[in-house]
Amino acid sequence: MVRLNRIYTRTGDDGTTGLGDGTRLSKAHLRIEAYGTVDETNAALGLVRQHTGTANLASLDAMLARIQNELFDLGADLCVPDRGQKLDYPPLRILPDQAVRLEREIDDLNSALVPLKSFVLPGGHPAAAALHLARTICRRAERLMVHLHDTPDEPVGAAALAYVNRLSDFLFVASRYVNHVAGAGDILWVPGGTR
Q1: Mean pLDDT over residues 69-86, rounded?
Q2: Which of 77, 87, 122, 146 has its CA 20 to 30 A from that of 136?
Q3: Does pTM top 0.90 for this prediction?
Q4: Coil, strand, or helix at residue 187?
């Protein structure tokens, strides 16, 4: 159970922070960068949701609300690395089914869209533009998680890696879906179009 009575503790004044297992790390540690960037993705989705409260985007908004919660779960997963130690509690882990659900939702959203013949420029409806921002932050989180995974003694679960990879795909398709539903349409890249 999370209980936040005091917001500041002063324990991080030395530039360290605590993991869920009690280990203290530098705030510049790759693990902290990874779950901090997951948190950034979540904050970007909060901005997206300022524009998805309309009836025509209600189903997407519900998906995004669930994803925001799952991003906290992902942060918790990364905050307690699975090093095989016995803990006094079951650590929260991302499950393979969560990436599978994202795949189903990608397919559902994508079924309304025409196939792409060019790359898409971020823009259109405000929610679509914000989804592109969230997507790029999510990709940065993924790169950091992969770097962490490739670092000796810094485990990252396979389900967590699959989830974050699928999430960036979801955010891309969701941006196109918003532009389709809102009537803004995709803004396509025109290679060399400004020469």
Answers
A1: 94
A2: 77
A3: yes
A4: strand
- What does the alpha-carbon distance between residue 64 and residue 42 come to, in Å, rounded to a whole number? 9
User: Residue 57 corresponds to which amino acid?
Assistant: L
- The tokens describing 127, both together, are 């929610």
Structural contact between residues 108 and 169, judged by C-beta atoms closer than 8 angstroms:
no
Q: What is the 3-state secondary structure (H, E, C) of 115-171?
A: CCCCCEECCCCHHHHHHHHHHHHHHHHHHHHHHHHCCCCCCCCHHHHHHHHHHHHHH
Q: Secondary structure of 18-40 in the HEC alphabet?
A: ECCCCCEEECCCHHHHHHHHHHH
| CA atoms in the 13 A half-sphere facing the CB of 165 | 10
Q: Tell me how far apart the alpha carbons of residues 164 and 16 are, in angstroms, rounded to a whole number.
A: 26
